[in-house]
Amino acid sequence: QVQLVESGGGSVQAGGSLRLSCAAYGDSYSISSISYMGWFRQAPGKEREGVAVIDSDGSTTYADSVKGRFTISQDNAKNTLYLQMNSLKPEDTAVYYCAADSFGSDYAWSIDVRGYNYWGQGTQVTVSS
Asked: Which helix (H) or strand (E) segment is 3 a member of?
């Protein structure tokens, strides 16, 4: 009952920045039931990995690989999630997905894919050296 739509991907040089957005669409009850929202990424030939997660109160956690460089945030009035990516590296190249959890799964805070039941279509981020 919730549709997630990512935007903001593109190609940048190493050291550059991008801001990804994820808009949530659906009925008010379904959107209000979301407990966590997260960002994931998947590079060619690799498993999908967690990047960052935020809960409804604004608490955040990050994968070690992006700490200090990426910031997850949300605008509840606009039902929109953001990922600010600074100091980008070639190894950040991947398809980035936003996801939402409406069940309060124990996996969600661990940024584990098993904790999320709604997914966006993905947006490509390419970082050149």
From this structure: strand 2-7
Contact 81, 34 (CB under 8 A): no
DSSP string over 75-113: EGGGTEEEEEE-S--GGG-EEEEEEEESS--TTGGGT-G
Query: Which positions ≥6 away from 53 have C-beta within 8 Å?
Result: 36, 37, 38, 39, 60, 61, 72, 108, 109, 111
Reply yes or no on whether the pLDDT at 1 is more than 90: no
- Per DSSP, 56 falls in state T
State pLDDT tens for residues 76-111.
888 999 999 999 999 999 999 999 998 888 899 999
